[in-house]
Specification:
- It comes from Haloferax marisrubri.
- It is a single chain.
- 22% of the residues lie in helices and 29% in strands.
- The chain is of the alpha/beta class.
- The protein has two domains: 145 residues, Jelly Rolls, CATH 2.60.120.260; 207 residues, Glycoside hydrolase/deacetylase (TIM Barrel, Alpha-Beta Barrel).
- Strands 1, 3, 4, 6, 9 and 12 form a six-stranded antiparallel sheet that branches. Strands 2-5-11-7-8-10 form a six-stranded antiparallel sheet.
- The chain is globular, with a radius of gyration of 22 Å.
């Protein structure tokens, strides 16, 4: 597909609105250096070009994945009856102005003197969540970033499963909750209590809103996606042969304006990897994160990066984005939803069935034990573990080739399905 300069720009920022019917049962980049391989030209443009046609945008995806997936599954609690919830720490109140769905949400608050805010709901007869993944709508007001955890007592405090996700302040987001810690031998057919917590450790205030706790059928098997940021040379020289020896593909987040530099994957190598099943996806990294860029610059950066991928033959991965520095805000999520089906952040751990496709969490693969723990959870609970790498050199904090190979051997040992962004999306896009 060949795009003209005129087609590089467009409008149409999607916004989340309304509620769908909910049925079912209760219950920083180095400078490019000279190389013998000439850099690939990168399109440049002005966002406010008056010649841009505001009509159809050839780079836009067919639908907004956040809107399509935001309320799949069945409702566990809609927070319309606050009397069902008690507090272990901090405080909560009914909120009628900041609402995800329905007439109210709950506002959870902790003062600087509190270590955490923590609410709970009991289920006298227990509920069966053994074949379900949970998601929770969360809107973080302060601080700018923090972790949210959900604990399942199954059936008591000696047998619990702790789920969680990290979140940035970015309006309402549906957090797909993945396992973080197991205590005892939880029986998820008999969950008698669900609690929601944000731990600050004291010294800072916290305020966030929760709404629409939902469950969705669990996948039939665990899977892993192996991702690499910044298209660094070692990904081709080292990681690629190791993965090839197992028949596994990977995903590279490409910074288009660095292609052709000697310390990046050579252009011919990118083609070779794609022919072997790899995805080249968008990684529009600038000197500032998307939390600092203006909406206009966010859109220009996202579109320019995707346009480069499409024009250079990497259409298969062009519908997916790895967030630079793992950071985003509300406008960035809205804009990315115009051009991408899936987005990947820096932290998050294993995730269940995806309900907010723009903020899929990843695990730092440089920490081998952490990576193996995520892989164990993926195998045990049929989760998606997305591993994140940059260099595979062993220098500094980067994983060594031997340690990387150890992790990939473990993937093979567990029998996890190795997916790419495109193959994973193909498997879930029509499930709602």
């Amino acid at each position: 597909m060949n795009l003209s300069r005129r087609s590089y720009l467009g409008l149409s920022a999607a916004a989340l609105s309304g509620c769908v019917a909910r049925g079912g049962e209760p219950g920083g980049t180095p400078e490019a250096t000279a190389t013998s391989e000439p850099p690939v030209p990168t399109p440049r443009f002005r966002y406010d070009d008056p010649s841009v046609d505001a009509g159809g945008d050839p780079l836009a995806v067919a639908f907004n994945s956040r809107e399509r997936f935001r309320d799949v599954g069945w409702l566990v609690d809609d927070f319309e009856d606050e009397r069902l919830w008690g507090t272990f720490a901090g405080r909560y109140a009914v909120e009628e102005e900041v609402v995800y769905c329905g007439s109210q949400s709950l506002r959870l608050e902790a003062t600087p003197d509190d270590e955490r805010v923590w609410i709970y709901r009991t289920f006298e007869d227990g509920i069966d969540l053994s074949e379900a993944d949970l998601s929770l709508a969360v809107n973080l007001e302060t601080p700018d970033t923090e972790g949210v955890t959900v604990r399942l007592a199954a059936p008591d405090y000696d047998n619990t499963l702790l789920l969680g996700r990290h979140i940035w302040k970015a309006g309402w987001q549906r957090l797909d909750l993945g396992p973080q810690r197991v205590t005892g031998s939880p029986d998820l057919t008999n969950v008698t209590e669900i609690s929601i917590q944000m731990y600050t450790g004291g010294g800072t205030a916290a305020r966030f809103y929760v709404d629409s706790l939902r469950a969705k059928p669990r996948a039939g098997a665990g899977s892993v996606m192996i991702t690499f940021d910044d298209n660094t040379r070692s990904q081709y020289d080292t990681a690629y042969p190791i993965l090839e020896s197992h028949g596994f593909p990977g995903v590279v987040g490409v910074i288009p304006w660095t292609v052709g530099s000697s310390h990046r994957i050579p252009r011919s190598g990118m083609d070779e990897m794609v022919e072997s099943g790899w995805d080249m996806v968008s990684h529009p990294q600038q000197s500032d994160s998307f939390r600092v860029l203006s909406p206009a610059d966010q859109r220009a950066s996202i579109r320019e990066s995707k346009a480069w991928l499409v024009e250079n033959g990497f259409e298969r991965g062009a519908d997916f984005i790895i967030w630079p520095y793992g950071r985003y805000n509300e406008s960035a999520l809205d804009i990315a939803s115009d051009y991408h089906y899936l987005g990947f952040v820096t932290v998050g751990g294993p995730t269940g069935a995806v309900s907010d496709p723009q903020i899929v969490g990843r695990t730092d693969g440089d920490d081998v034990q952490k990576a193996k723990k995520a892989l164990d959870f993926a195998a045990q609970y049929n989760q998606l573990a997305v591993l994140m790498y940059h260099d595979v050199t062993g220098r500094g904090r980067a994983v060594s080739p031997a340690a990387f190979a150890e992790t990939i051997d473990y993937v093979d040992e567990l029998g996890l399905d190795v997916v790419t962004a495109s193959s994973y999306w193909e498997s879930v896009r029509d499930t709602v």
